[in-house]
Amino acid sequence: MTDELLRIKNLTKKIGSVVPVNSLSFELMRGSCTALLGPNGAGKTTTLRMLAGLLSPTQGEIIYSQSGAGSISNWRNRIGYLPQYPKFYGWMSGIEYLNFSAKLSGLSKQRAAERSLEVLEMVGLQQAAKRRISGYSGGMKQRLGIAQALVHEPELILLDEPVSALDPIGRREVMDLMRALRGDVTILFSTHVLHDAEEICDDMVLMVEGRIAESGSLTELRMKHRQPILFIEVESGEREMNWLHSLGNRDFIEASEIGTQGARLVVSDMNRARDVLVREIAESGIGLLRFEAGTSSLEDMFMKVVNS
User: Fold this and answer.
1) Phi then psi dihedrals of residue 73, to 5 deg
2) Which pLDDT score is estimated for 290?
3) DSSP secondary-structure letter at 225?
4) 253: left (phi over 0), alpha (psi -120 to 50) or beta
5) How do beta strands 186-191 and 156-160 pair?
6) What b-and-e string marks burial along 217-231, b requiring 16 or more CB atoms within 10 Å of the CB?
7) 196 C-beta neighbours (distance < 10 Å), count
8) For a Cys staple, 90 with which of 134, 221, 227, 274, CB 3.0–4.6 Å?
9) C-alpha to C-alpha distances, 73 to 49, 62, 138, 156, nearest whole angstrom
10) Residue % of the chain over a pLDDT of 70
11) Residues lower than pLDDT 50 in the chain
């Protein structure tokens, strides 16, 4: 998969003295699924709204394949967009709403009817097609929102926090749908939940305070930020607690989190750390319950980058 669909260069949005998006640059490959990751207020929604053509950038370029720089208007009919809090006409049925959306997107009456049925089946709402939207669950409404974003056969769909307001069942329904869509359509979705990004994405763009703090494939980011970690759990005695609280003084320990009965240690040299600490435990008669070696996770990377 080497066909580039979208490139943004130095994308910036200024609103008075506030700069919610500051000099973003990244690419999307055709058929990929990319997570726009970051804490609340990082600038994710503003970025998606600019890519969808709903906000004008203050500066920078948005370049879609086979179009000139910044020519978003030529691409609007090839983009599907789902806002974080989609609004529906509750008195409409699902099929009526999709027909209405399809016609607004320029489809003929016949094609709008055909395509509405296709996407309802795609998102698993065919049995509820004639039911009023006011009677839909949260997960059903979100799936209907994705169907609306797909009804005009776009090449790219932009989803803003598509599962943030859902219960576990609705969340699973939407995540499964996104997994099924990847490859057939290019997906860019925003989230502040790392697990969602890990579950279905090829690539990740991590935003902090309007800027890109990290970006790349999940494999690349795991390799770049992987650190050796020791997990130690001991009995709840005074000797054990004194020993745990002394661990931060070792020169091979880069960071430590000490709890009431255990510690999580980021180490620079796993072999040395293991040898030294196991020997100390044995010589001091420490009551050991757990001694486990591992590596840092993407969540560790996320917290480190966000808090730095």
Assistant:
1) -60, -35
2) 93
3) H
4) beta
5) parallel
6) eeeebbeebebbbbe
7) 21
8) 134
9) 13, 11, 32, 14
10) 96
11) 1, 67-70
